[in-house]
């Protein structure tokens, strides 16, 4: 595969996407229920682009991921330490260390194709990310629980773009108040853009699928506040 292959692709127009998450109802025909009756929540604000990367691009990224220095961090839950059920690595610009669940994850330098995908996202959607968290699920026993990507160092009101490679997995989105839930099937090459305020109003998860034998790699491109430092916790 030539190095330029990633750059030469025509930009994808957002209008070509199959996502419905942004569809706005025509307000002229909107019937408002009386305020004492619970109203169905809006759809979560996402755009899903099927087959955003072609097979060659998927293969280039997938091959590259075989050399990533993945680790399996431990997180503290109710005072006890547990390994997370997947492997992770964080690539980012300088000054973009990432802290979640009490862990400080230091930024590693961008690999070639992860960086090319970042540039493509910037070109196609104006997505101004400065870091990518790569998750590796060895098989369907590995998962991610319910959460929002709402850590304080994430740039307020920014979008997060999530690219899937390898195994097809269910991805759930659940409204924080109403508990309304939707399920997307994410396939290799698909791109899910989670728009603000999805991280404020909704949670998401990747449940176990025990019959799944294949590996899945997920890239979530984020924008952190550069040089963000949490106040030191007193010892
Ligand atoms: O693997 C996925 O699709 C979800 C990843 C995710 O939610 C995250 O990294 O915050
Ligand atoms: Fe997430």
UniProtKB/TrEMBL annotation:
One of its GO terms (biological process) is DNA alkylation repair. Substrate binds at residues 98-100, 150. It comes from Shewanella pealeana (strain ATCC 700345 / ANG-SQ1). GO terms for molecular function: broad specificity oxidative DNA demethylase activity; cytosine C-5 DNA demethylase activity; ferrous iron binding. 2-oxoglutarate binds at residues 135, 137, 147, 204, 216, 220, 222. It holds the Pfam family 2OG-FeII_Oxy_2. Residues 128-225 form the Fe2OG dioxygenase domain. This is 2OG-Fe(II) oxygenase.
């Amino acid at each position: 595969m030539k190095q330029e292959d990633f750059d030469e692709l025509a930009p994808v127009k957002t209008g070509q996407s199959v996502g419905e998450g942004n569809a706005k109802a025509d307000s002229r025909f909107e019937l408002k229920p009386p305020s004492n009756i619970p109203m169905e929540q809006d759809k979560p604000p996402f755009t899903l682009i099927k087959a955003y990367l072609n097979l060659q691009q998927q293969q280039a990224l997938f091959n590259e991921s075989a050399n990533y220095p993945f680790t399996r961090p431990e997180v503290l839950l109710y005072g006890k330490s547990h390994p997370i059920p997947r492997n992770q690595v964080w690539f980012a610009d300088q000054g973009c260390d990432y802290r979640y669940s009490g862990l400080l994850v230091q930024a590693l330098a961008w690999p070639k194709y992860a960086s090319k995908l970042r540039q493509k996202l910037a070109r196609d959607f104006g997505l101004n990310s400065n870091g990518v968290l790569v998750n590796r699920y060895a098989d369907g026993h590995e998962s991610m629980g319910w959460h929002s990507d709402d850590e304080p160092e994430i740039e307020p009101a920014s979008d997060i773009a999530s690219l899937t490679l390898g195994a097809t997995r269910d991805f759930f989105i659940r409204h924080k108040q109403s508990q309304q839930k939707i399920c997307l099937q994410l396939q290799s090459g698909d791109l899910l853009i989670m728009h603000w305020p999805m991280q404020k109003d909704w949670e998401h998860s990747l449940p176990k699928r025990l019959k799944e034998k294949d590996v899945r790699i997920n890239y979530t491109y984020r924008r952190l506040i550069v040089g963000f430092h949490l106040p030191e916790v007193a010892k």
